[in-house]
Structure formats: C-alpha cells, structure tokens
Amino acid sequence: MSKKQDQKPGIEHVERSSADLLAESVAELKRLFPEAVAEGKVDFAKLRAVLGDEADDRPERYNFTWAGKRDAIRLLQTPSRATLVPAPKESVNFDSTNNVFIEGENLEVLKLLYKSYAGRVKMIYIDPPYNTGNDFIYPDNFADPLDTYLKLTGQKDSEGNLLTSNPESSGRYHSAWLTMMYPRLFVAKQLLKEDGLIFVSIDDGEVANLRLTMNEIFGEENFIANVIWQKKYTRSNDARWFSDNHDHILVYGRSKECVSLNLQPRTEEQLASYSNPDNHPKGPWKATPLHAKSGRAQGFSYTFKNRVKWSPPRGTYPRYSRDTLARMDNNNEIWFGPDGKATPSRKTFLSEAKTGVTPVTIWMHEEVGHNHEANNELKALLGEGMFDNPKPTRLLGRMLELATSMDEGDIVFDFFAGSCTAAHAAITLNSEDGGNRRFLMVQLPEPTSKDSPPWNAGMKTIADLGKERIRRVIKELKDEAKGKLDLKDREVPEDLGFKVFKLAESNYRPWKGVEHKNGEAYAETMEIFADPLLPGWKPMNVIYEVALKEGYSLTCSVEHISPQRHEGTKKDHMADPSCLGAFVVENTVYRVTDADKGQSFLICLDDKIKASAVKALGLKKDDLFICRDVAITDEQAANLALQCKLKTI
User: Fold this and answer.
1) What is the Cα Rg of the chain in Å?
2) Contact 647, 603 (CB under 8 A)
3) Degrees (nearest 5) of the Cα angle 129, 107, 414?
4) pLDDT by residue (tens digit) across 610-649?
5) What does CATH list as the number for 77-131+178-202+209-264+358-504?
6) Whole-model pTM above 0.90?
7) What is the Cα–Cα distance from 218 to 267, expressed in whole angstroms?
8) How far is it, in rounded angstroms, from Cα 525 to Cα 522?
9) Nearest to 437 by CA among 470, 466, 404
C-alpha cells in the first residue's frame, strides 16, 4: 500500500459527495433523544417509550402512501457523487453576477446544493410536469440517477435508458409521479429560510395528491393557500363537460408562523372608493359598517349625539365598544349619510389604512396574465413555437412581489425552470423597483424535437432555450438603458448577468473495488488512488467541486494569487502574478471567498508544494488551506496542521 494512503496527522480530507441527509437526520434524532440510542443505533422501542402518547403506531392510523414511496425515500437518502462544472462561455458576467443557471437533473442538483443553500432561499416556484399522460419526463432506471442522466444527455454511451412519458395506461400512473415529486420537494424544503415560501403550479389532475404530499413534507399546519389562477379568458365550447380555465398554485411556508406576505398596492378603482365629502381634516375616507359577523354582546344599542339610536342588524354583533363609538362620534368619524338619516357607519380614513391590500386567492387574467400572453412574450423574445405553455411573467411577478423583499438579496429558486419565466420576472422586477433579488434556475437538458423552431434556432435542449431567454432579456434591458440615467437608489449595481453550471461526473475517481482479491492487486489499486483526481482534471472544475461540497455558494469568488520569492533578497511575500519582474512563482494558489457566508479558503492543486510558498502565504490558525494529498510530505502536513486548518484531496 502506498505511504500516501496513510492518514496524515492532524488533517482531514475534503468532502467527495453531497451531504448524507439520512446520517444528518439520525444524528439529530440521537441528539434530541439520547436515551433512545443503544450501542450507537436508534432503538425504536425505546424511542416509542420516550414519546409516550405522541407516538402513533396503530395499524389503522391515518397514512398517505403509494407504490414506490420506499424508492422515493431511498433516492432521497442516497448522496450525490456528481459535481457542477462552470461554463463561463455560456454565462453573462460570470465573475461578478449573483444569478445562477444550472443545467442538470434536478434531484442530483438539489442534493449538491443542500450544503451550500440550506436555509437560504426566500422563495421557491416550480411548474412541474402536470402528469397529463404525455408530458411527464422521467428516466426508466432509478438505481443510479447520475449514470442514467449522463446517458440521457449523451455524456455516456446510451444503453436504452431514454426519456419517457408517463402514460395513463400505466398501472403506477399516479405513483410514478409521486415518486418523482417526493424527494425533490423534501430537499427543496430544507433550502427554504424559516420565513420562506414555496409556490407550486398544478392542474386538477394531481392537485389532491400534491397537497397530501406537501402536507406530509411541509406539515399540514404550514399550508397557506390554494390560489386559483385564471389561465384562459375564452370558453372552450368543444369541451365535453366543462371548459378548463384555471390552474392551482399551492402555497406553503417553511414555518407558517414566521411568514409574512407583502401587501399589494391599491388599484385606481380601490383608491376611487375613498373621498372626503365633508372635508374632514384626516383626508379621504370610505364608509364601513359598525357591525361584525361574530361577537358577544347581546341586545346592544347606542345613541349618538344627534339622537340616532343604532343596534347591529339581526344575527350580527357590534364591532366597537360604547367607549370607542363615543370617541369616534366626538371626532366626527361617524357618517349618517348626506341627509344625516342613513344607517350610521364608520369613516375609515385612507391615511390610517394599511399601505396596501391583502392578497386574495383568485388571480384573474387581467391582473396576472394568461397563457396567450405568456406565449406572446416568448414569441417576442425568441420567435414562434419555441415552448409549450410557458407562464406569464406577470404571474411570477405577483409571487415575487408578495414573497420577496426588494433590497435584501432574496434568492428565488426554480428547479423545473423550463423557459425560465421566473428568472425573466426577477430581472424585470429588479429593473423596475431597483431591487437586488437573485435567481437560481435548474433545468434538465431535455432535447427539443428535431426540425422544431428551437432546434432550428440552435437551441437543442430546453436548457438552451432557457439560457437564451435570460440572455435576451438582459440584452433588452441593457439596450433600453443606453443613454439613460439610472435614477433608482441602488445600494448595489443592477445585476444583469448569470453564471452557468452543468451537472457532470465528479473529478474524483470512483472506487470500483479490486477484481482479484490478493495483496498485489490491492497494492496496485491503492497506488492508483494515491491521487484521487481523474486524468484530465481542470483546476477550475476541481475548485468549484471542492467549494460546493464544503458548503460554499456557487456565487463565491475565485481569485488567483501566487506566493512569490524575490531572487535577489530571497524575501517571501505576496505579489500580483501579472508583475513578475525579478520574482519566481513558487506555486499557483487560489483564494475562494463566499461573501454571503463570510468564509474563505486557499487552495493549491500543484503536484508539489514548496515550503517557501507556504511560508509566503502567511497562514494563520483560522485559515483553511486545501491541497492534494500527494503534494505534501508527512512532515509538511504535520507543520501545516499546527499552523492552520488543513484539508487534503
């Protein structure tokens, strides 16, 4: 066995896979109920005893299940061994933007994002396949999602694992859809902030199953609303039963008690209901009833100064106490009609009202758009026939206005991104109100049909189409801004860019075992694994994989620094690598910084690290330094472990 396989003293290895969600859950269970742990394992008999009446193990208890639920949970619990590879050439302003587009299978991507984005996303919107019998795309083989994905996208030789629909004739029609949705929603919940919201579009076909699934994952107590969106404004007279004119949008909070929705601005029609016919000093008002639908007082009556006696109508109750009515009466805040004889009502003043109105659960097409509008939007950007049934940007804009803040850098996440309406809406709203919302899009590179408009336009996949839409929205805004002064009060510059990443196999060698079980074969294999990086690895790809699996954001900055030595004085120090002069570059080092999390690390991927270069870095106890295990000796490892936090690849 190679000496390099021995664990060097005082150091750790970098993570090679995504977080193990099962291990984290078990660890939390052990922390909460240590008395239910025996010999390192959870003893469920003891756990039930600890929980007492809170544990429900009755055979006929309420339970939501389906054929394949165990498969869904198993998929959820399997860490991803993939990585995300940067694609700067397909990006816009790669080095400075905080927006991200990821091309890949969304469950694998969600697992990879977990460590970096858990508890950070303010709003999730998804428009998943509606399971109509022909639009449900899913791999046939669930045993190895990454391997299947690589074959689907042509990164490996295909062996018949093709994209398939979910026909209604399938015996597991609903079950297959639920098996697809469950693990994705489970991980998505972990990414939400405590006050975060998720909006899910769906039709009547799966809304009942989706709501039961979300009740299980998010908790029934965190259900907020079932919004009805009028997606069509015309009647389909050729429909057999009813003209289908609506979709559902299920809304849940990570923790409902922490959620607060923004109010909607009043419309001109709503403002017109306020007037000031009596020139009251508080300004415009509208008349509102003095009674309520519920209360306690029975036989209540009150006589105002003008001797008008008032009692709540039969079956209703007084909204205000006698003292409050007296105060309003003395302040001329009761309206008796223009002739002074009408039923008394309160003057509700616009100056004292909330700054906006509470949202309702029915969204009409006049307010948030419809399918035809969405198609026209996409047609204007990309051409005709590019994408079936996109959502209008006004619909996503309504959700963003309700769920996000203008100036807090809220992250908006869509992992069924499609044509990227959510990204379009976020960019547009930021441009309108000077906000700094960020988007995070994920889309499977599902092939477009050959000879179709997107294929002929060079967009071979839905992911290509989404990226191109974002580019054109950015270009339009840049063109509009030319020659204009930006009058918005921005704390940070407008972010008109996005980083592109692609799901790919890890840069680390996968362990495949030893074919011949003998000492020589083991020694040869271990020698190969002395350096776990695959042949042909690229520095930036490795750096981003290390960063992601160590919990750094995809928007972290990567700065090239080089410790150098002056040939004349032999003095070690840091210098600009572009100004070499009489300096000798010792090693290539990068500083990776996640400004959002306030953390950074230094990484060197050279074959051998020189002691003088390490000295020039000036590492301190709290600094994290990462390098290849093969690049340092045991003595260097021991010294570095005393000097800083050391991890090796």
Assistant:
1) 31
2) no
3) 60
4) 988 888 888 999 999 999 999 999 899 998 998 999 999 8
5) 3.40.50.150
6) no
7) 34
8) 5
9) 404
